Request: fold
Amino acid sequence: MPYYVTDTNPDCSGWAVEKEDGEVMGCHETKQAAIDQMVAISIAEDMEPGGERALPDELAEGDFVRWDSSGGTARGRVEHIMREGTLGVPGSSFAINATEDDPAALIRIYRPRRDGWQETETLVGHRFSTLTKIDPLPAPSPEDEDRQVDMTIPDYIREAARQGLAFYEEGLAGDGLVERTVREARAMARGDVTEDKAIRANAWGARHEPDLRADGARPGDDGYPTPGAVAHLLWGIPTGARYDDARAFWERKAAQIREEEGRTMIEATPVEPRSKDSGVEFRSVVGEIRSEDGGNRFHGYAAVFNSDSEPLPFTERILPGAFSKSLRNRRRDVRAYVNHDSNMVLASTRSKTLEMREDEKGLRVEFELPEGVSYANDLRALMQSGIVDKMSFGFTVPRGGDAWNDDGTVRELREIALHEVSVVTGHPAYTGTAAAVRSLDALAKRTGLAVEEVTATLDALADGEQIDAEKADALIAAIKGSVKEPEAAPAVLGLLAKQSELLAKKAV
Reply:
């Protein structure tokens, strides 16, 4: 609830600081003293100051105003004023009682653009006591208007937000929810969403997809809704039959906005929760994948340098040279997949069908598609037509390979251990990630080693080199114990057959 300053409050002889409902927070002799208190309280409660309340004779039709809404500070133009009776809002059942002391205004909402403000079709109603008069809002340039992304949201997303708010009011949202999410959900329920929210909703949905695999996360489950399900609904992502539709909607809107702004889009992709220090992470890049001479050879970028990521929730950027050490490791066989599916291999460095190098833009990937493979034939047609234009890579960060700023909001990746690259078709469904990566992560957890240590040990074993005794013993124990764990089976079954070789290679 915002705070205002006014000199008409009957409980103060001078200037008062009051809440929206009229509760007095303090009385002051001067307007500046009241403003100082209003600003201090607002900062302490992380909200924008309400300003000076508009008096009954201070607003006229055509004036621009701002007010506090559930989605933050809103702005618009007064189209009609009523000083007595009931003001109805077209397109809704909402109505306001107007009085001479506190008239009601019908206001057309304006949306921010990059170089101005665009009027919308949305009308709202507010009393004068909630409004602050502002200078006229500048109109966007014609070029900016031409580039505008349609931010109309489907009814099923609005209904998801309404359902999430109902669960929130019942106390089912959990402790990690922030007030901003609730404010934006209320705005979304009305059909209002900003471009910034669309970008964040896309990144949030991708990052939290694993939450929906918990018991009670889907409608009809026992224990529904979990806090994770409530959070999805508040972000405009239904957890039932329309889930895929909502994820595709937010992804499409984020891509359209980024295309307008001429920026490369880097996203977090959903993976099983892992620790920051040793887990495998994934990022995907919307960019170009091009055919060379219309044949089987393609090239594109799996990563770009010095480009800020989507909120993860931190901002991340990859520095030039981050892949250099990993690319020099000739023993590691890096493979290219479709959608990180290890059953859909496209190319590999060991077979020399996959080439990777760093240039001034990022990690450039060139690959030769296999002949006579059905999924490769399908992918070839999609890439040649331009329908598929996204690549992704899986990686870990060696110790000391990243750096964070003081408040943990920005992460720089300076060294990356590359595990795989993928061509991503449409909306990637990484419900479990590639089997090989799952297995590496499972082995890492069982052995207590970092993922890159497990990978290096297995690479050395494949090359016939001697293995560090302690790491070999840890791997042997993990291999024996993994037979009962399906998650680890793909990578370890082959090693079980050559356990004697592992023992023989162990350095003593």
